Amino acid sequence: MVIHTLIIVEILFVNLLVTHFVLTKKYSVLKIVTYLVLFTFIYVVAAYFAQNFNRPPWFNIVIGITYVFPLYYLYKESLLKITTLMLFSWTQTMIISGFSISIAGFFDQDQLFIFIVQTILFIGLTPFILIFARNTYKPIIDDIENDSSAIMVSTVALIFLATVGITYSTVIKPFWMLVDFILVLIISLLIYTLLKRYVDKSNNIFSLNKLAYMDNLTKIGNRYALFAQSNALISKKIAFELIFMDLDDLKSINDTYGHPVGDDYIISFTEAVSQSINTEDSVYRVSGDEFVCIIKSSKIDLGLFSKNISKNYRFKYIFNGVSLGLSKFPDDGTTLDELLVEADKKMYLRKQIKK
Asked: Which residue in 147, 264, 289, 332 is the catalytic one?
C-alpha cells in the first residue's frame, strides 16, 4: 500500500509541476504549494480509506481530475485551458507510469520495481515534458481560435482516454502494452506538433492581415481598415458618426523643419486624437494629412472635440490646428463614399471660414 501511494503521489507531483511551470500564477509560490499540499493530503487520505470499499481501478484518475478546481483558483488561465493542460500532462505521466508497469510485467516484478523504473523515467523525461508543454502545447491552447477549442479538447480527451484504456486493460500482454504506449506517445506528440504548426501559420496570416490594415507611420488603421469597419457597421445598420479631419498647414511644418519633424507632428496629432475619443471609437489615416474618426459611443460636439485635441497635443512645435467635418449614418448617407463626401464638404467650408 505504501509503495502504491508513492507511485500515485509521484505522478501527481509531476503533473502539478508541469501545470505550475506552464500556467500563470495568481498568488505566491508559497501559497500555491500550501494549497496543493493540503489538497493532495485530502486526496491521499480519501484514496487510503477508499481501498476498503472495492474502489474501481480508475478511481485515482477521477479524483485526480478534481485538481482542476484548486488549479482554477490558483492560476489565471480559464477553466478550459487548465482542463486541456491537465489532460495533456496526465496523458504523458500515465504513459510513463504504464510503461513502468509493462516493464515490470514483462520481467514479472513487484510494485517496488514499478516505482523504481517510474522514478528513473520521470527524472529523465520530465524536463522534456516541461519544455514541450511550455514551448509547443501552451502556445496551442493560448492562440487556437475559439471555434477550434472544442476540437482541441476532444483531441486531448481522446488521447487521454486511449491511454487510460491501455493502462487498465487486463487482456493486453505486457509486451504489446509497451508497444501501445509507445505508439500513443508518438501519435500524441505528432498531433500536438501539427497543431502548433497550424497555430503558427494562423498567427502569421493574422499578422500579415494586421499589417495590411495598419498605417506604417502612425500605427493606426489605414484606408482599408476604415472601409472594413464602416462597411461592417453599415451592413448591420448600426448608427455612427464620421468625422473627416484635415491638418491645417502641414506643408509649413515640412518646409520649415523638414519631413522627419513633419512625421513626428502627424504622430503627435494621432496620439492627441486617440486620447480625445472613447475606447469603442476609432481613428484612421486615409492620406498624408487626412484622417477619419468613426464615433459609435455617443453624439459628438465638434467644437469640444477640437479643443480636446489641442489640449492633448504634446509636441515641441506649435499645433496649427485641424479642420473637421461631420456626417452621420444613415441620415447623411447610406454608403461610406456618401458619408465621406458629405463630411469632406463640411470640413472644406470650415477650412474656408478659418482663412
From this structure: 289
